[in-house]
Structures are given as structure tokens and as C-alpha cells.
Amino acid sequence: MGSPQRPPLAHVFRGTFVHSSASAPMEILHGHLLGVDDGGTIVFLEKTDHQEQLAKKWGFKTSDIRELSNHEFFMPGMVDTHIHAPQYSFTGTRVDLPLLQWLTTYTFPTEAKYKDSDFAEEVYTRVVRRTLKNGTTTACYFATIYTDTSLLLAEIIDKFGQRAFVGKVCMDMNDSVPQYKEITADSVQETERFVKELLERKYPRVQPVITPRFGPSCTEDLLSALGDLAQARDLHVQSHISENEEEVKLVENMFPAYQNYTELYDKNKLLTSK
Q1: Residues in a beta bridge with 214
Q2: Are 104 and 216 in contact (CB under 8 A)?
Q3: Are residues 27 and 148 in the same domain?
Q4: pLDDT computed for residue 4 by the predictor
Q5: 117 shares its domain with 42
Q6: Greatest CA separation found in the chain?
Q7: pLDDT at 2
Q8: Which end of the chain, C or N, has fewer beta carbons within 10 A?
Q9: Domain end: 74, 106, 126, which one?
Q10: Under 8 Å between Cβ of 188 and 195
Q11: Are residues 131 and 46 in the same domain?
Q12: CATH number at residue 230
């Protein structure tokens, strides 16, 4: 029997590669060859001394190699662990207020616009394209309370090939902007639908993440239900905690049965290894 056929190479690069490993915080590899197959997997990273052997093994010619210039190098894609996709529409502006007032004045009214799928598609496309352009190949996104446009964000991310966790935001308390909140049962039900539909799409690089916005926007019932869902489906969790003193005091007043903000998440099964 012959040896199994290797997948064809899509790219071969020669130049400098920078990465980190368990033994070296930063390793600079000059004069190396990197091969990528049709599936986007790196199949080799070797010194150029091995070019002849690699060419025979993988079936590429010298003319197939893309040579990096002296001022170019490859590095692993960056990971952004916290992006509010809907806030991209006013990025770099509206920074004149403390957190809670900023949410009420700018953020919640803006996020309420994302019920409109056309508006959401335009902004979400821009934020995904921009993060990729800046070298962010993996991201954790907060969307909004709207399930359908949160699924749209996941679809856009998949289309552009970014790796991501996407969360439908959950919030059943918002007296300051009452049109932008959910009924507790609806929030849970819609989160279950979001998770189910996103997993059924089987995107190779996009996964759901349970996303209570933060303590002040969630009742204890909602936090508990989300914790149960995260545990039942073995899902990741993202939120916010202790971003300023006013927020911490608010949580202390809202949830006096808990010793601190951290315990609020912990006792409701939201502070996990994921």
C-alpha cells in the first residue's frame, strides 16, 4: 500500500517568525519556512536548510515560496478577550462620563438600535473586518439582548474566518433605560435559543458564551438560571465585575445576602474554570 496522500499546500512562506513557547516568552526564528495546507493548518515550520527535503515531502517548487522582506515577519494572531461589538458605532468618542452614567446616556440607547438587522449587519461587519485588519484573529464578543442579531454577529464572524465566542447579552433590570431590558423568563428562554441555534450551525470557529451583562442589570433569578444553563451545557461565561466604586456599592446594596461581588457570581455558578 502507498503512503496516505498529503493535503495540498495552500501557502509556503520564507522569512522571520516570532512566537512564544513554554520555555521562551519570545522566540525569534530567522530564516525559516512555514507551510500551510488547504484547511488553514500550519503543517511545518522548519529552517530553510531543510527546504529541499520539505519540497520533496510536500510537493512545492521554489517559485511557490513567498519571500518576506527584511521588514516583515509573522506572529501569532492576537486575542481580544473583551469586545462590545455594538459599541463600535461610537468607538473613540463619548468618554466624558463615569461608567454607570455612560451606560445610561450612551450605551443602552445605542444598543437598543440593534434590534434592526440592517443596522446591526452594517456595524458588525465593520467591527469584525477592523479587528481582523488589526491582527485580532480570536475575540470574545458581547452582542446585545436581541437574539436574532446576536446570531447575525456569529454568522458574520464565521464568514470572515475569525475565531470567537459570542454572547447574547442578558439583562432583566434597567430602570434608567426601561425599553432596553428583558423579562427574566424571556431572557433565559432567548439565551437557550441563542445557544441551541448557534451550536446547530456548527461553525468551526464560533461558539456561544453565557453573558450576564453585570450584577446591576440582572436579578438573582436570572443569574441563577444562567449559571444552571452554563453548567448544563458546559459553556463559557463572560461578564463584568468591580469596574468602579459606584458599581461595587450598588451591587452591595442590591444583593446584601452576598459577602461581595465575586460571591454573587460564584454562588450562582457563573465563576467557573470557563
Answers
A1: none
A2: no
A3: no
A4: 54
A5: no
A6: 73
A7: 47
A8: N
A9: 74
A10: no
A11: no
A12: 3.20.20.140
pLDDT confidence of residue 125: 98
Among residues 47, 74, 101, the one where a domain terminates is 74
List the beta bridge partners of residue 236: 209
**Per-block mean pLDDT, blocks of 10 residues, the chain (274 long):** 66 96 91 93 95 94 94 95 96 90 95 97 98 97 98 98 98 95 98 98 97 98 98 97 96 97 98 95
The three cell numbers of residue 20 are 512564544
Cα–Cα distance, 248 to 11 (Å, whole number):
51
Residue 141 near residue 166, CB atoms below 8 Å = yes
Q: Which domain holds residue 24?
A: 9-74
Q: In this predicted structure, what is the pLDDT of residue 95?
A: 86
- What is the C-alpha separation between 136 and 75, in angstroms, rounded? 11
Residue 1 has a pLDDT of 45
Tell me, what's the pLDDT at 5?
60
3-state SS string for the chain: CCCCCCCCEEEEEEEEEEECCCCCCCEEEEEEEEEEECCCCEEEEEEHHHHHHHHHHHCCCHHHEEECCCCCCECCCEEEEEEEHHHHHHCCCCCCCCHHHHHHHHHHHHHHHHHCHHHHHHHHHHHHHHHHHCCEEEEEEECCCCHHHHHHHHHHHHHHCCEEEEECEECCCCCCCCCCCCCHHHHHHHHHHHHHHHHHHCCCCEEEEEEECCHHHCCHHHHHHHHHHHHHHCCEECCCCCCCHHHHHHHHHHCCCCCCHHHHHHHCCCCCCC
**For 42, what's the count of Cα atoms within 13 Å in the CB-facing half-sphere?**
10
